[in-house]
């Protein structure tokens, strides 16, 4: 790594960022995508092997499903974006020592339309 250009290192994305980008590409379509299609969808240069590695990590975490397509594999999200976000929020609340305090901070940061939607959901008993 000592010989690497500092600009190249600055442009590197973390595994979490790449996972988010791959999931976003999958959520943006209603059909399974191959690693090559995902590679083409993601901005910036990204090696095919990197995309394949990220897909394997997401598969191992249960976040994507693999569909056999001849010799190639195509991937689709295991959950839609809203389901995944809700699960991440639930896990974050469960990890913290003060889930009520975290909810209070979260609610005070909502935009007006989000606050209205939350009030409507709570009034209707949806959950």
Automatic annotation (TrEMBL):
<dbReference type="Pfam" id="PF03965">
    <property type="entry name" value="Penicillinase_R"/>
</dbReference>
<dbReference type="InterPro" id="IPR036390">
    <property type="entry name" value="WH_DNA-bd_sf"/>
</dbReference>
<feature type="compositionally biased region" description="Basic and acidic residues">
    <location>
        <begin position="88"/>
        <end position="97"/>
    </location>
</feature>
<keyword id="KW-0805">Transcription regulation</keyword>
<keyword id="KW-0804">Transcription</keyword>
<protein>
    <submittedName>
        <fullName>BlaI/MecI/CopY family transcriptional regulator</fullName>
    </submittedName>
</protein>
<feature type="region of interest" description="Disordered">
    <location>
        <begin position="75"/>
        <end position="99"/>
    </location>
</feature>
<comment type="similarity">
    <text>Belongs to the BlaI transcriptional regulatory family.</text>
</comment>
<dbReference type="InterPro" id="IPR036388">
    <property type="entry name" value="WH-like_DNA-bd_sf"/>
</dbReference>
<dbReference type="InterPro" id="IPR005650">
    <property type="entry name" value="BlaI_family"/>
</dbReference>
<keyword id="KW-0238">DNA-binding</keyword>
């Amino acid at each position: 790594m000592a010989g690497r250009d500092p600009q190249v290192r600055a442009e590197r994305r973390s595994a979490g960022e790449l996972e988010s980008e791959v999931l976003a590409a999958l959520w943006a379509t209603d059909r399974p995508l191959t690693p090559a299609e995902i590679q083409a969808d993601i901005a910036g240069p990204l090696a095919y092997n990197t995309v394949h590695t990220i897909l394997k990590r997401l598969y191992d975490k249960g976040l994507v499903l693999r569909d056999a397509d001849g010799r190639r594999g195509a991937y689709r999200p295991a959950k839609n974006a809203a389901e995944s976000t809700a699960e991440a929020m639930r896990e974050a609340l469960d990890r913290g020592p003060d889930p009520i305090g975290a909810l209070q901070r979260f609610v005070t940061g909502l935009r007006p339309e989000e606050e209205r939607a939350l009030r409507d959901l709570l009034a209707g008993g949806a959950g």
